[in-house]
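User: Predict the complex with uracil.
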Amino acid sequence: MSDIRLDKFLADAGAGTRSEVKIKIKKGQVTVNGEAAGKSDIKINPDIDEVCLDGKKLIYNEFEYFMLNKPQGVVSATKDDKDKTVIELITEAKRRDLFPVGRLDKDTEGLLIITNDGKLSNNLLAPGKHVDKTYFAIIAGEVTDDTVLRFTEGIDIGDDKPTAPAKLRILYDDKDEILDVDSDATNNNSGNVNNIMGDDIIKSNVEITITEGRYHQIKRMFEAVGMKVTYLKRLSMGSLSLDDSLKPGEYRRLTDEEIRLLAGDF
Ligand code: URA
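Assistant: Here is the predicted structure with uracil placed in the model:
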């Protein structure tokens, strides 16, 4: 790692904002290799130098990586005037420059990677890299083998070009189950039923894998074939699968192995 300023090191290590850490340095709370650091702009090599705040050694992470099970009602953004953001859920973060890798809709749940590694994010999201994203979805409508075929051919969702082929798998266990949307659906699966009202309708449970990340892509694909997504949860992105011990709103750090595998996905 190359040299960085002491105040940046401290801020990146979660010791406070840049101005807060400057005050701590001035007050003599910070030592570098055992000596009180008088100045904020001295250069530190994070691999070699030992920096302590109030006698406690600080660990510097150039990058942080978290797997979040995004809950509904939270937006995939770093800041929002109205809604809680996914970043606010990562309470153990040290870095202040974290962002979500791509977006899930406000009412979508599931796997979201949160990091400050722009290179990894760009690679995972780059259209040319075709990283698989797999979702579980509950569909108001009867998904048939014909729908599966249409999805493999790409769907016209009103953009310049049809979507790339998508893999759709019908989960037959629940096929033909009648969904009384007003009552049953909310009990069934965390309940984002999206205002479908009216008569009983057929519900299909599916798994869908797409390689692009267009705006509302899965909802628009089903709308284009006359159906509605009533629940959507991302299960995996490239080699990374959602840890099923994480409840909506919970997160954990990625392991070194998971980070290594993700980097091999593009
Ligand atoms: N497709 C959608 O329609 N919504 C999401 O959140 C993700 C994929």
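The helical segments are 6-12, 18-26, 118-125, 145-153, 184-188, 217-224, 256-263.
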